[in-house]
Amino acid sequence: MNKLFTLSIGLSSILLAQNITSIEYTGLLHLSKDVATEISGIHVGDSFDINKIDESIKKFYSQGYFSDIVVSASKNGALIYQFKEKSVISKLQMKGYNSSSDEDEQEALFTSIGLRKGDLYDAVKVQTAKKKLIKKIEAEGYYDTVVEIEVEPKEESIALVFEVNKGEKIYIEKIDFAGANRLDTADIESALANKEEDFMGWLPGLNDGVAHMDQLAYDGLRAKDVYMQNGYLDATVSDPLMRVDNGSYKANVTYQISEGEQYRINTIRILGDVDGLKINDIKNELTALEGKIFNINKLRKDMEYIKEQVANLGYANVRVKPDFQKNANNHTVDIQYTIVPGNIVTINDVIISGNHTTRDRVIRRDIYLAPGDRFSQTDLKDSKNALGRRGYFENVSIEQQKIDETHSNLLVKVKETATGSIQAGGGYGSFQGAMVSASLSDRNIMGSGINAAISFDISKISVNYSLSFNNPRVWDSDYSLGVNLYQSEYQYVTYDQKSIGAGVNIGKQLTRNLYGSLNYNYSKNKTNVDENTTDFHTFSLFGQEDLNYAKSTFSVGLNYDSTDDFYIPREGIILGGSLGYTGVGGDEKFLEAGFKFGAYYGLEDLIDYDLILRYKLRASALKDQGQISLPEKLFMGGIGSVRGFEPYSLAPHIDSVDDEGRDSRQYLGGTKSVINTIEASIPLSKAARMRLAFFYDYGMVGRKDVNEITKEGYGVSLEWYSPMGPINLVFARGRNPDKLDRTQSFEFTMGRKF
Q1: pLDDT tens-digit series, residues 386-416
Q2: What CATH class does 264-340 carry?
Q3: How much helix, strand and coil, in percent to the nearest 5, is found in the chain?
Q4: Residue 4 needs a FRET pair 20 to 30 A away by CA distance; which of 76, 188, 403, 590 works?
C-alpha cells in the first residue's frame, strides 16, 4: 500500500479537481484497451478521483498479468497507465526426479504440480509448485527432499530448472502399538498406509515398508477406525511418533493406545417422514443389528443404504444424520438415523460429453433416467454399470448438476476406448505346432453400437474362418439380431473334420440385467476316420470310415449380467443357462444343456489395494436322442477351459499299444463336463493398464459320471488392456499329466474378456 499512497499524493498535488481528457495504456500484451477500460472503470470526462485510481490499480494487479504498474498524469488532463507484464515461462525442466527425459512425461509432471509452459511467471505460484513436488516425493517414501529452482531470464521470457535431490527412502522396521491388548496388532497394522517391511516385501501384494510421509498423520485415525469397527467407542489412538536412524534410514513408529470397553448395540431407530418410504422394511435390511457388537463400517453402509432408498423416491439431495448415544453403565449404544430428505428432484436434462464416435442415442438407451423423470439413485448406478458393460468406454462417470432445489441435470462423461481393431493371437503346442489367429472387428461400428467381425486362425492341424454381425438394439428397441457364417477344418488325433455352417440369433432385453435369446444353427460336416489309428468302436455311431452329417440346432438361453465393466469387472455376477435340441432336420439327434456362472469382487475399498477375485464355473451336458457323433462331444483343455493342456485334448479315452509297440490314445469324448476357475488379479502398471492374474483351473469330464477324467492346471497370465485391444499372455502348467496327455505351457489371445 506504500506505493499506492505515494501515487495518490503525487496525483493530488497536480490535478486537484481537473477532469480526465484522455487515457493511455502502454505495455499491454494480454489485455486490449477496451478490456483495460472495463477493468479500471475510469473513462474520459470523469473527474480525477484518487481513490478510484488506487482501486483500478488493485484490479489490474488481481488479473495476475503484471509485475509493475505506474500511473502518471499530465497537466493537460491525460491519465497514463504504464504496465510491465510478467515474463512468460518458456522452458520447464526437471533434473534428478527420475531418469526420464521424455518431454511428455516432464510436461505431465509439471502439470501435476500446477505449472505449464506458457504460464506467466509468478514467484508465489512457483514456490507453491515446489511444495507440491516435495509432498509428491515424500509420498513416494523419500526423506529430507531438497528442491532448488534455478530461474534463467531470457528475452521477454523465463526458463525454470528444478534441481531435485530426493534424499533417502525411509523403511519402517518396526511398529509398536503400546496399550493394544484386545485387538490383534496385525489387524490394526493392515489398515495403515505405513506398514512394517515384510520379508521379500518387494513382491507384489507384500509390504515394502517404505514410509509414506504424507499419510503418516492420518494413520492414527485409521487405527482408531479399526477400534470403532470392533465396538471400542472410547478408544483413543495418539498421533504416530516416528524415530528415524539417520545412518540406516530405518524407522520405528509408536502409537499410544487406550482401548476402553467394547460396546454392543442396544436400539436402532430411523426418524423421518418421507412419503412412500417403508421404515420397517428398511430396518430389516440393515447390517447393524440390535444386540450385536457396534461396527462403524456397518453404520456407514447402513447410512448409504438408507440414502439410496430415499433417493430412489426422487430425493436426490437427501442427507442421513447418524447419532449414537453411549450408555457407559452397561456399555451399550443407541443408534438413531435422522432422514433430512430435502425436495423431490426432477431430471431437467441429460448432457453427454466425451463421445467423439459413439452416438448420443446409443448412450442414452443405456441411461435409465430421462428429462422429466424423478431422480433415482439405483437408476443412476445401473446406468453407469450398463454403459461400462458395453465395452465402448474406458471410463464412465455420471454426476448431478444442481439447477435449483427441485431440478438437476445429469452429466454423463465418457472416455472412449478402441473398439475397432486388428487383433492377433497365438501360441505353440507340441501337437498343433505354431498357432496364429487374427481378426478384423469393431464392437461399435461408426458409433452405432453394431458389432461385426471377420476372423481366421491357422495352425499345423487347423484352419478356421468366420464372419459375424450383431445389432444389440435393433432400431433402438430391446431386441437384438445376429448372424454368423463359418468354415473350419480340424485334424484331431484319430480323425479330421471339415465343417461349414451358419447361425442366426434373436434376443430381447427382458430386464436391465436379464437377456433372453433364441438361436438356430445349421452346419454340414465331413469326418474322415484314420483306420490305422482308430479303434472302430470309438465310432460305432458312424458305421463307416468317412461320415458326412448335417447338424441342425435350435436353442434358447437366458443370461444375467450385473457386472460393472466389460473387460475388467470389479463387482457383480454373470449367470447364464441354455437348452438346445439338435435333430429338427439333419442327422444328429441329442439334447444339450449349458450353464455358466461368474462372480467378481474387488477388494480395493477393504484393503486399499486393487486386488480382484474371480470365480468362474462352466458346465455342459449332452443326452443322446439317436446320434451324437464324436466331434459333437465334450472335450477340455486350453484357454477358457483347463489351461496347461492343449485345446480339446482332454476327454474319456482308451489308451493302447499299436503293433509297433507305440503308445496310442483313442478318444471317446464326454457327455458331461464341469470346469471351475479361481483367479486373483493384481495391478502391474495402472498407467499402462496392465495386470497380473494368478489362476487355478479344475475340470471334470465324463460319459456316465462327470468325474471320469479330472484335470488341474495353474499358472499366471499377463492381462494388458493395450491400445490395440485386450491382450492375454498365459503361462500355465498342467498338474500331474498322464503319460499321453498333451500339455501346453504358453498361449496368448487378443480381444477376449479377462
Answers
A1: 888 887 888 889 988 889 989 999 999 988 8
A2: alpha beta
A3: 20, 45, 35
A4: 76
